[in-house]
Write a structure and sequence with these properties.
By secondary structure, the chain is α/β, with parallel strands linked by helices. It has two domains: 324 residues, Aminopeptidase (3-Layer(aba) Sandwich); 145 residues, Carboxypeptidase-like, regulatory domain (Immunoglobulin-like). Helix content is 29%, strand content 18%. An eight-stranded mixed beta sheet has the order 1-2-4-3-5-8-6-7, sandwiched between helices. Strand 11 and strand 12 form a beta hairpin. Helix 1 runs parallel beside helix 2, helix 2 crosses helix 11 and helix 8 packs antiparallel against helix 11. The protein is globular.
Length: 502
């Protein structure tokens, strides 16, 4: 009888309990964009806050963010992950701008109407929405006349100084590719804020977002675009530019593929293999996107992109979403784009609760900048991308279902590790795994630890129920096996030897 291996297939049904009310679809200019944010904040003041990034656009427009959370908006709370959506990075790609404005109204309405999924999200997540990163580009694109029903392909894509914001971030990929060749090369936070801001040629919009990324401990994010229909994941830049487009996997490649599919599979046509591809005239041809996803560099190499900067310079995992073939559809078509993307937008936000989270401390004092390393079990293969604990000592590590060994390292303390089994569930917070470190000037107790891969546990039906319950409680009740109880340790070893035939 298999005691621990239980595969539960969850069909995630995103809320369809209510329709968006009192929201007018159409091309929202700078003033009407602000009006929607302020109206939502006025309707839902207890769960929202509006703020602007630290620098304005080239032409002096604010980069306005609205935040939603059910407890103390404006405050980071340890244990509550931070999520963000960024739209309209290319000013002429307006679908993202419009669906994010609709999402703003939807979250406010859903909380007021006590929709269970919206309420759960806001109670357990801090959500930030920047509907337009390039308001100047939108103004230029909107001013251009249509020809044969289409706006010009490039007008308004860049900012007011003709800078493509998605090619304007510090180029961290090449730096990381150099570190990969070193045995203990840096694999995270590879650029300080000071260094990032010192890179020449940064647009004010780019500088504003960089400072934003370093000021809030974001865990998961997406930037939304238009011109194709696909979910794109890191890395965006090829490891060898001489070879052109090539698959450039990150250490979290399997996780990123899952994140991309969590969006594409909830979209009515993004993952449809029979859909007609976009006509990318004069662009990169007509690629085929299996499951509606693509590795960025495999599609075409991008240097200075925002998604890779998020992943390599901060703790934030980000993907890029292309929401449709038409960059600037007619206003009357925008409602359908919202309907097509609503379920995906909501489902993607739930992914911020996958994996593990916790607090790193010592004798009650929180420890920032501790390094959290993860090893896959039973293979023992490290995921060569660490995350760091934040100012409050809290950390968040997105992970797929499976067995892992988690090791925490902090200067001035003995390293500590835990063996965990991750089993992600919809509308359930990430598993809590806290660490209490011992100062390095104190003797560390001699602990024996052993990771127990769930798939290796296949106990015979003759095993006593009491033993089964005890094993389950020790391994799954706390999701941790790390003990100095030698009797228990030897007992478990004998069971495993019997179960595996060793």
């Amino acid at each position: 009888m298999r005691l621990f291996v239980a595969v539960i297939v969850l069909h995630i049904v995103i809320s369809r309990a209510f329709e968006l009310k009192n929201f007018t679809f159409g091309d929202h200019d700078y003033q009407s964009l602000q009006n929607i944010l302020h109206e939502s904040n006025k309707k839902c003041p207890e769960i929202s806050q509006i703020y602007t990034l630290t620098e304005k656009s080239v032409e002096g427009r604010d980069l306005i963010v609205i935040e939603f959370t059910a407890d103390r908006p404006g405050t980071h709370i340890a244990g509550k992950p931070e999520f963000k959506y960024v739209g309209n990075m290319h000013g002429n790609e307006v679908v993202s701008r419009e669906v994010l404005l609709a999402l703003v109204a939807y979250l406010c309405q859903g909380y007021q109407e006590k929709d269970p999924e919206v309420v759960w999200l806001l109670q357990n997540t801090r959500i930030h929405i920047l509907p337009s990163m390039n308001p100047d580009g939108w103004e230029l694109a909107n001013s251009r006349p249509r020809k044969n029903g289409q706006k010009p392909w490039l007008d308004g894509r860049a900012n007011a100084k003709n800078v493509d914001l998605n090619r304007n971030f510090p180029e961290v990929d090449k730096l990381e590719y150099k570190y990969e060749k070193l045995e203990n090369g840096l694999n995270n936070h590879i650029m300080s804020l000071k260094k990032a801001l010192s890179v020449p040629g940064l647009a004010p919009e780019t500088r504003a977002v960089i400072k934003w990324l370093y000021s809030i401990p974001f865990v998961l994010s997406s930037n939304l675009h238009g011109g194709d229909l696909v979910a794109n994941y890191p890395y965006d830049e090829s490891r060898d530019d001489r070879q052109g487009s090539q698959y450039s996997a990150s250490p979290d490649d399997h996780l990123f593929r899952h994140l991309a599919k969590s969006y594409s599979k909830h979209h009515p046509s993004m993952a449809d293999p029979m859909r007609k591809p976009c006509d990318m005239s004069g662009d990169q041809g007509l690629p085929e996107f299996k499951d509606g996803i693509t590795n960025g560099a495999s599609w075409y190499s991008v240097s200075g992109g925002m998604q890779d900067f998020n992943y390599l310079a901060t703790n934030c995992f980000e993907i890029t979403l292309e929401l449709g073939c038409d960059k600037f559809p007619y206003p009357e078509e925008e409602k359908q784009y919202w309907k097509d993307n609503k379920a995906s937008l909501l489902n993607y936000m739930f992914q911020v609760h996958n994996g593990i989270k916790g607090v790193i401390q010592s004798d009650g004092k929180r420890i920032p900048n501790a390094t959290i390393k993860v090893v896959k079990m039973p293979s023992g293969s490290p995921i060569k991308h660490d995350v760091l604990s934040g100012k409050q000592g809290d950390y968040y590590r997105l992970l797929l279902d499976g067995d892992y060994k988690v090791r925490v390292i902090a200067e001035g303390f003995h390293p500590e590790e835990r063996c965990i089994a991750v089993a992600n569930k919809h509308m359930q917070p990430a598993q809590v795994v806290n660490f209490d470190l011992i100062p390095s000037n104190e003797e560390k107790p001699n602990k024996q630890s052993m990771c127990v891969p769930t798939k290796q546990l296949d106990l015979s039906s003759g095993t006593e129920q009491k033993l089964q319950d005890s094993l389950y409680d020790r391994i799954y009740g706390d999701y941790v096996y790390n003990t100095n109880d030698n009797q228990w340790f030897n007992y478990l070893q004998r069971i495993l030897q019997t179960a595996t035939g060793n």
